[in-house]
Specification:
seven-stranded parallel beta sheet; Rossmann fold; 12 strands; 12 helices; binds 2'deoxy-thymidine-5'-diphospho-alpha-D-glucose; 42% helix; 351 residues; binds nicotinamide-adenine-dinucleotide
């Protein structure tokens, strides 16, 4: 019986990871620690909330007394750390919460794990889930590899880069058993509709403007979220302590091409005249410091640990759109209240 702490398990990627771990490893006890910010939602875990090997703990990783107590009480064998502020635009508008959660919160977890594992580190692992944004921005050529120099350019990516450095520093200085992965853009069900794909799906459905930043020529590498959490499982169990693994989808799209694809698929699904959703596209002011292109070379993970993405993008988009069209109550619940204030401020429009 292993006891694993997953932080941020009520969020987008975290909820998919909790589901995979609870279902795949009935002999593990999975503890989900989440403070339930606007992005955390226990509705994401309805299907497994009563599983005998699953428990939810509400708590804030920036509270070190709480974190220390939890580690003393529970004796975790492993940590999969996903809790974070994750949205770049929010980090540009107000960076401080990103510093608190992504940096300070991570250090509290590192300190608690170090103390808890001081007498026995065999079999223990602190897995820090990070982002490809720490590497900065690419031109039209080239890929991020694991030893690409860090060059974070938004408050979000700088906070994630800082936490990556601290995780590595605890390994080198205190021999804390750690592993890190840096992944490209995820998409799929349960993603909060402030991120590009669910925002566009929701707006197309409601015939609202589709805000494309700048010219829409920025490039992102999209990965199905369920493939990301499968990679996390493989790395947790077979990755080498102290190492970093890049995770990506080999699936680069400009934002404008992607929005066009979403419009065309949804015109067909919603029986609208072909081309009508594209008329909703509105070019808006560019994101400050907008990174041009991210692209991942994931050969270390693919060749070394045998992982590869399972789903083609057209199939993944189809499934994702269907999910958002079918889960209207979820969508309405998460987009009510404080989200509406954020949306109005961000896009200067009424919801
Ligand atoms: P998300 O915003 O959907 O979820 C974050 C979760 O963390 C939420 O449930 C939230 O309530 C929780 N949380 C926030 N602050 C907390 C705190 N102080 N204490 C406890 N819980 C807290 O994020 P996501 O998109 O699922 O990303 C998860 C992780 O994966 C993040 O670390 C992110 O940097 C990383 N990542 C995300 C992507 C992506 O495309 N979304 C890609 C690569 C890496
Ligand atoms: O690369 C991994 C990262 O991907 C993760 O670490 C982050 O947590 C995650 O949010 C994501 O960051 P991005 O900034 O790439 O994702 P976002 O969905 O916010 O934007 C994707 C692209 O679309 C980006 O170039 C900005 C653009 N965009 C976004 C929004 C919300 C628009 O053109 N219009 C929009 O309304």
């Amino acid at each position: 019986m292993k006891k694993i702490l997953i932080t941020g398990g009520a969020g987008f990627i975290g909820s998919h990871l909790v589901r995979l771990m609870v279902n795949k490893y009935p002999n593990y006890e999975i503890v989900n620690l989440d403070t339930l910010t606007y992005a955390g939602n226990l509705e994401n875990l309805k299907d497994i909330e009563n599983a005998s090997n699953y428990r939810f703990v509400k708590g804030d990783i920036t509270n070190h007394c709480f974190v220390d107590e939890l580690f003393k009480k529970e004796s975790f064998d492993g940590v999969m750390h996903l809790a974070a502020e994750s949205h770049v635009d929010r980090s540009i508008a107000s960076p401080m919460q990103f510093i608190m959660t992504n940096i300070i919160g991570t250090v509290h977890l590192l300190n608690a794990a170090r103390e808890s594992w001081k007498d026995k580190i065999e079999g223990k692992c602190f897995y820090h889930i990070s982002t490809d944004e720490v590497y900065g921005s690419l031109g039209n050529e080239g890929y991020f590899v694991e030893d690409t120099s860090y060059d974070p350019r938004s408050p979000y990516s700088a906070s994630k880069a800082s936490s990556d450095h601290l995780v590595r520093a605890y390994h080198h200085t205190y021999n804390l058993p750690i592993v890190i992965s840096n992944c490209s853009n995820n998409y799929g069900s349960f993603q909060f509709p402030e991120k590009l794909i669910p925002l566009m799906i929701n707006n197309i459905k409601q015939e609202k403007p589709l805000p494309v930043y700048g010219k829409g020529d920025n490039v992102r590498d999209w990965l199905w979220v369920e493939d990301h959490v499968k990679a996390i499982d493989v790395i947790y169990h077979n990755g080498k302590i102290g190492e970093t693994y890049n995770i990506g989808g080999d699936n680069e799209w400009t934002n404008l091409d992607l929005v066009h694809a979403l419009c065309d698929i949804m015109d067909e699904k919603l029986n609208k005249p072909s081309g009508s959703s594209r008329n909703l596209i509105t070019f808006v002011e560019d994101r400050k410091g907008h990174d041009h292109r991210y692209a991942i070379d994931a050969r270390k993970l693919k060749l070394g640990l045998g992982w590869k993405p399972s789903l083609q993008f057209d199939e993944g988009l189809d499934k994702t759109i269907d999910w958002y069209l079918q889960n209207t109550e979820w969508l309405e619940n998460v987009t009510s209240g404080a989200y509406q204030d954020y949306y109005k401020e961000q896009y200067k429009v009424n919801v």
